[in-house]
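Posting here for the record, re: AMZ.
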Amino acid sequence: MMCLCVIPALHLTRINCKYPKATHFHVNAMNFYPAIDLKDGKAVRLLRGDMAKATIFSEAPMDQATAFAEAGCKWLHLVDLNGAFAGEPVNVAPVDSIISATNASIQLGGGIRDMNTIGRWLEKGITRVILGTAAVEKPGFVQEAAKTFPGQVAVGIDARDGDAATRGWASSSGIKVVDVARRYENAGVAAIIYTDINRDGAMKGPNVEATEELANAVSIPVIASGGVSCLKDIQTLCQCEAPLEGIISGRALYDGMFSLQEALKTIAKFQN
Ligand code: AMZ
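Prediction output follows.
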């Protein structure tokens, strides 16, 4: 089917689109989110979410955050991994120190499951909270949270074989990613962060097709996460037929596959 498709600003042409909902021109304003995942107070990267397969990249996450901010990123993506398993915040001190050390906007997920916890993080200076498990298990609460804190609640959908995973990715909900996402259409959530678990930390490229499918199924901005391993992957996501809001990258940055400046420059080529 031929449609006016979502395309990067530098490529305003009609192209074939397999997703009929993408019927508007989209001027890409894409953000880049360097990831800092916190385990036992340290910055780590996991392989496919497995806590037993953690590589420690920094004993001082605050220094890592400062380095990213100094390199020019506007956003940081933080995950309290212990919190995601525990169902409540665990790495509070390192997050607090990152908040006070940097002016970058911060999105934070992991163990945020009630309104008080959301309120506390936002009061401390977190820009946007990410609700993953709650988005699957407590949709009413997430909708209420998005209303209470407009623009400050993101939904994290972590997909394993097309289904949303929860509780540190240890459980599978059996609910399709798109079905979780559609619950939040018009709920006022700031973004959906889509992570493909099988790609996460694997350095084999993102799941572009699934990301596009999701971004075309809902009008909520989608942030792509999991598997970004080189600048070409960033370029591919910038050029994808979907209104992506951002890209999260962790291991590739830590492994030196590209620098943060190179990532930002690559994205900038596709902006107005
Ligand atoms: O790597 C993992 N095992 C993992 C991870 N990165 N488990 C959860 N998370 C992240 C999600 C989301 O950002 O990608 O934690 C957040 C969701 O936490 P919760 O507690 O709301 O499900």
